[in-house]
Amino acid sequence: MPTLLVINGPNLNMLGRREPEIYGRQTLADIIESLETMADDHNIRLFDFQSNAEHEIVERIHQAMDDGTDYIIINPAAFTHTSVAIRDALATVSIPFIEVHLSNIHKREEFRAHSYFSDLADGVIAGLGPIGYELAFLAASEKIC
Ligand code: DQA
Is 71 annotated in the active site? Predict the structure, then answer.
């Protein structure tokens, strides 16, 4: 069964309550639930992982090398702008991925405009809110099904 891993970085567990004017009112559970429905429809196995800790995300990516993961959708959140370690983990496992951001990181503070991931990603979606994850799912499913 084609397998997709969805990774969400720090503070995304607070979606729905976190700066709703920027990130909206949907919770992460809402977003994952809609991806699970899509995964059922497409016969895709979905793993989801959220952590506020950089090393846990690095370790989850390493695990993906051995758990059958074919494709990754990742919102690295604040680690987008800081984490060479997570970038290196993705390069290490060499699993293709799409980078997703709820907000348009290019329309915000200057420090958010740089991503350590975009030049490795198959694609980048930013600024479309939770639908961005669904669009990433559809693109990923085209590649792995
Ligand atoms: C984010 C954008 C990041 O700059 C920020 O640190 C986040 C969320 C987004 O989804 O819009 O935590 O990745």
Answer: no
Q: Where are the alpha helices (DSSP H) in 65-130?
A: 84-93
CA distance 21 to 32: 21
* Spatial CB neighbours of 91, under 8 Å, sequence gap ≥ 6: 120
Collect all residues with Cβ–Cβ distance below 8 Å to 8 and sequence separation of at least 6. 28, 48, 49, 50, 74, 75, 77
DSSP state of 111: G
Is 23 an active-site residue?
yes
Q: Of 114, 142, 133, which Cα lies nearest the Cα of 23?
A: 133
| Interval 6-36: pLDDT, tens | 999 999 999 999 999 999 999 999 999 999 9
Put simply, whether the predicted model's pTM sits higher than 0.90 gets the answer yes
pLDDT tens for each residue of 77-88:
999 999 999 999
CA of 96 to the centre of ligand 1 (A): 21
Residues 73 and 43: beta-carbon distance below 8 Å: no
How remote is the CA of residue 70 from the centroid of ligand 1, in Å? 24
